[in-house]
Amino acid sequence: MIILREGRVAFLEFLRNLSSQVMILTVALFIGTSIEARLGGWSTAWRAALCASVLLLFFAAALANVTVFVETCLDALGRDGEAPARRGKRERIVFRWTAESLRAAWKRHAWSIVALAVLLECGFIAVFVTASFAAAKLMR
């Protein structure tokens, strides 16, 4: 399994970054539950804007965390296969490169890709459950 060999450092970084995602999502949920839709006005608008910006920060952190982990794992899986080589201007082609690498790795390592997807999904379920319980505790 890839997370026990070449991907173990990326896997540990992925797990380490989940705790910051829990904190960010907890803050967003706490702010979101304090918004009272009936009142309206600037107070509600500021809280909604703050909640939306914190949620945007959460999604950016989650996307960054996942892409680093998946890229590292796909690099390791593609070494023995026909994974596409990285080209210049990496920022513009990262999603295309990831999709091409995923297709190439799927041909040879389908079960590893499925295990990677399950692992990522379990990580995000843990983030959402933990953040929900933490926000509920904060509201008491």
TrEMBL record:
Transmembrane segments: 18-37, 49-70, 110-136
Keywords: Membrane, Transmembrane, Transmembrane helix
The protein's name: Uncharacterized protein
